[in-house]
Design goal:
Helix content is about 35%, strand content about 25%. With about 325 residues, the protein is of the alpha/beta class. The chain has a single domain, classed as UDP-N-acetylmuramoyl-L-alanine:D-glutamate ligase (3-Layer(aba) Sandwich), CATH 3.40.1190.20. Helix 1 runs parallel beside helix 2 and helix 7 packs antiparallel against helix 8.
Amino acid sequence: MIVVFGSLNIDLVCRVQRLPAAGETVLAPDYGAVPGGKGANQALAARRAGADVVMVGAVGTDGFADLALEALVADGVDLTRVARVDGPTGAAFIAVDARGQNQIIVAAGANGRASAEGLEGLAIGPDDWLMLQWEVPETEILKAARWARAAGARVMLNRAPAGPVSHELIALVDAVVVNEHEVMALGESLVPEAGDPDSVAAALSERYGLMAVVTLGAAGALAWDRGIRHDAPSLEVDVVDTTAAGDTFCGALAAAFDRSRGVETALDFACAAGSLACTQFGAQPSVPHRALIEQKAAELSVRRNPDSRRIPT
C-alpha cells in the first residue's frame, strides 16, 4: 500500500505561444480547469500504475473541491482521510508554451491547513510506503515522516518545489526523488562539498543511507543506492505538456517499489510513465495506466539489456 500525504489543487491551465517575461502580458485563446496538486498527482499516478493508494490532505469548501477530487474518485484512490476545511481549495496557475514548457504559480489554500493528524489510526508497516512532497506545511511533513518511521514503513520524499531539507527529516527518508535543479538545492545544505547532480546524489546516498534518485528530463534518470549508480533512459516522445511528468515518475516509482521491483526495473517503469505523461495536455489527464507503462518500460529494458524481453510482475 502507498499512503500519500500532500496537496490537492485545481489547476487553471492556458496554452501560450511563449512564456511571458517579467512584467509582460501574453494572450491565450482559452483555459482549462483540471485536477492537480503534487500530492494528488502522485497518488493518481501510483494508483494508475497498479498500487493501492490512500490520500491524506485537505480541500476547501468552495466549488473547486469536488473537481479537485474527481479523477482520484474515478480511479479508486481512498479519500476517506481527505479533510474539508473552511476556505478555498488550493490552486495552481499554469502557462504552457508551444514547446510544452511551463510556468507555475501555486496558491496553497486548504493545503496550508493539511495535517498529519489525518494519518493517525491508519495501519501501515514495513511493506508500505509514505510519499511526501513540499506543497503542505513543513512541520506536518516532518510529523508524517516520524509517524511512518515509527510504524516501520518506508518514506519517499519528493523535494519539490526546490529548497533545503533539515538533517532531521532527511534522516527519516528511505528514498529522495528530485530533478537536477532540486538536487542542487538539497546539496547546498546537506552536502555542500558536492558540485554537480551526480555527485550530490552519491553523497546524499552515502551520508544518509538512502536511495537518491535524480530525474534528468529527456536524458532519463539516475539513482545512487548502496554505493551503486543506476541509469535509465527516457522514451522518445513528442512533448505536449511537461506539467505532471515529475509527479508521474514519483508515483510510478513508488508503485514499482511497492511490488518489490529492483532499482533498475523500477527506474525503467518510472521513466516510461514520466515520458508518457508529457504526451498529453493537463496534469492528471496525462497520467498513464499500468498496461501502457509496462509496454513502454519493456522497451526501455530491452534498450538497456538486449537479452531482456519482459519486466517481471
